[in-house]
Design brief:
Protein name: DUF6779 domain-containing protein
Pfam families: DUF6779
Distance between the termini: 109 Å
Number of helices: 2
Radius of gyration: 46 Å
Organism: Corynebacterium suedekumii
InterPro entries: DUF6779
Keywords: Membrane, Transmembrane, Transmembrane helix
Order of helices and strands: HH
Strand content: under 5%
């Protein structure tokens, strides 16, 4: 009903070869006939040779499957990296658009607030400001002498 795959046929052939080698070993043990010994030896040798070919084929198939798996993993990683970079680019674009919208709204709100308050609001950084002014009464005086702070 279902077609056998090459792997199934190889498994069946391997089982047959092991059975043939086992039967050949029994024949060699229990018979004293030279003809039967020669046939059993030939059957065991052929079973070993065909088994070696099957092992070689299975190993080659396993290596090909592993190489295909590695290739697919590499493709998957590349797709993930491309998706992540395109997603981050889209997010950056959306973020910059939202930021531009917020800045436009903020400038409109500032203009409305300036109109309502009747004065202009300039940009002042969030830092301390200090002013130094000279007292006009101190023009003729000299600053006091400072001694160096340290050991003499």
């Amino acid at each position: 009903m279902s077609a056998e795959t090459p792997s199934d046929r190889g498994q069946i052939l391997l089982i047959v070869l092991v059975a043939l080698a086992f039967i050949a070993s029994l024949v060699m043990l229990f018979t004293d006939s030279d003809g039967a010994l020669k046939l059993a030896l030939l059957a065991a040798l052929w079973a070993a040779i065909l088994g070696a070919f099957l092992v070689f084929r299975y190993r080659r198939d396993a290596e090909a499957t592993r190489a295909e798996l590695d290739h697919r993993e590499e493709l998957h990683r590349a797709e993930l990296a491309a998706t992540a970079s395109s997603t981050s680019t889209e997010v950056d674009t959306r973020d910059s658009e939202v930021l531009a919208d917020i800045q436009r709204e903020l400038s409109l709100l500032r203009a409305q607030l300036e109109d309502l308050a009747g004065r202009e609001f300039g940009y002042e950084p969030a830092a301390l400001r200090a002013e130094a002014r000279r007292d006009p009464r101190d023009r003729g005086r000299r600053p006091p002498c400072h001694r160096p702070l340290g050991p003499r």
